Predict the structure of Bromo domain-containing protein.
Amino acid sequence: MSCHSTNSNDSDSSSNPTEWTCLEKLLLSQAVYKYGENSWLEVASVLKQNALVQHRHSDFFNHKNCYFQYYLLTEGLQTEKDNQTPAVVRLARQLYMQRIQEIKNALVHHEQQLGQLVSEIDLIRKGELDDRLKVEYDMVSTSMSQSDPELDSKHDKIDTPELEIIKTTVEFERDIVMMLTNALMYNKEGTETYLLALEMLEDVKDQIELFKFANSFFKRKM
């Protein structure tokens, strides 16, 4: 038995919405240990209220699904001769070790991302990526012009106010968060735009925090 996800917060369960993540299996085993193998309503209730799995639809943790998943997990346990330890305890220990390994793998992945980000920031500061950034900018501009041939003429006809230049990470974070918050405010909850803005808001917060850390790390090395 193995855990299918390597994400530290198991938010990628959307790739297979019917499969339990390692974290969810661990929480299930802990709930069964606390309430017993015949208290599935209580087990289901405590899982539904757990903040770590709020991305799941509440129906996912119904008592029948919890019972069936626990049955599958215990059925897959290897029977050890003369082992008097209850199955739920052995299951929880096994899942705990798998979860620890999962988190370690995620930390390694994030460390690699951080190292790459620090390297790119260093190259940008030195001006070594100027040519590449210009090429990418030209490609985006060309793509936008091709998608809307009248874009350039429209832009010339419209008197656009002078844009405020963003000079700090704090200003960038303020503007991005404000834009996405407005999207949440002016779109009905549950719509595609609302859900996309919500997902982007969480991702932006994580990326900005990573950038802040990388930036402070780089300054300390200067």
User: Anything to note?
Assistant: Residues 169-220 form one domain. The CA atoms of residues 27 and 201 lie 27 Å apart. Confidence is low (pLDDT under 50) at residues 4-12.
